[in-house]
Amino acid sequence: MQQDGTEPPFQRIVARVRAAITAGDLRPGDRVPSTRELMRSYGVAMATATKALNTLRQEGLVEPQPGIGTVVARRPRPRAAAGAEGPEPLDRVVSTAIRLADTEGLAALSMRRLAAALGMPTMTLYRHIAGKDELLVRMTDAVFGESPLPGADTWPGWRAAVATSARLQWGVYRRHPWAAEVMSFTRPPMAERAMAHTEWNLAALERAGLSLPVAMHATIMLANHVRGTAVNLEWEATAEQDTGVDNVEWFTAQQARFTRITAGGRFPTMRRLAALGGAAVDYELDTIFEFGLTRILDGLAALIG
């Protein structure tokens, strides 16, 4: 959600289309506006329009129709009456929460919002999961389980082992940017599949000759590099969704201010770097992640050697 309390643009689009379907203005089978039509009508970026349609699909309100486009669902997801629900499978609760966090961001995920997506009263949801803390642990465990670590019988050398773990973690954050906000080493979620990475790295570094305390510090350093870089993924996605401005557009808009600040001579090195042109430095997060990972591995190699 935006800091001023207003709804992000994609949520306003979702609310209007949802209201039209509820009121009967859009009936089952009716075509809903396409991504480009939403962009023109609401003055939003493609990412925002796409996210709005994805959210409506996940709520079961619309569905793709080959040769036509996106239409109002002919069989909308049923909303059970209060008190009439049967047991809700926990895996559906968790998978729905993951989809919401993926599309709307972690800040928008609440027990009330999740209950609405599941079509049940909020109090009924608490019969299946104790609260948001437990929900986040189960979500974290589920997404880390998407790309499990190799088996012990395929154990590589310490460097390849540590790099494997780091890249698998990066893949998790790439698919689910919100997960980087959940992970912490001060109050880590007790998610078994995430903890497996700590065990994996500790074992690899101890075999390489580090004491367990030093191996733990190295494991924390590695995890913080991955997570610290990945935190930008969620922030970047949220900023683009809320404003409709991507990174390139944002930097272009800031160029005049940057030039004015550096013109006084306080930042001569930064000014010379900027003069090299935008292609001089690759600011892609994947590149930054790999650069940092390689330097950390080099440092550990010196420590171990």
Write structural notes for this entry.
- This protein has 305 residues and is mainly alpha-helical.
- The protein is built from 14 helices and two strands; from the N terminus they run αααββααααααααααα.
- The radius of gyration is 23 Å and the shape is flat.
- The protein starts with 8 loop residues before the first helix and ends with a helix.
- It comes from Dactylosporangium vinaceum.
- Residues 110-129 bind DNA.
Q: Which terms would index this structure?
A:
two-stranded antiparallel ribbon; Arc Repressor Mutant, subunit A; 2 strands; 2 domains; Tetracycline Repressor, domain 2; mainly alpha; 305 residues; 14 helices
What's the SSE blueprint?
Elements: H1 9-23, H2 35-42, H3 46-58, E1 62-65, E2 69-72, H4 90-104, H5 111-118, H6 122-125, H7 132-144, H8 158-175, H9 179-182, H10 192-207, H11 212-243, H12 247-262, H13 268-275, H14 285-304
Antiparallel strand pairs: 1-2
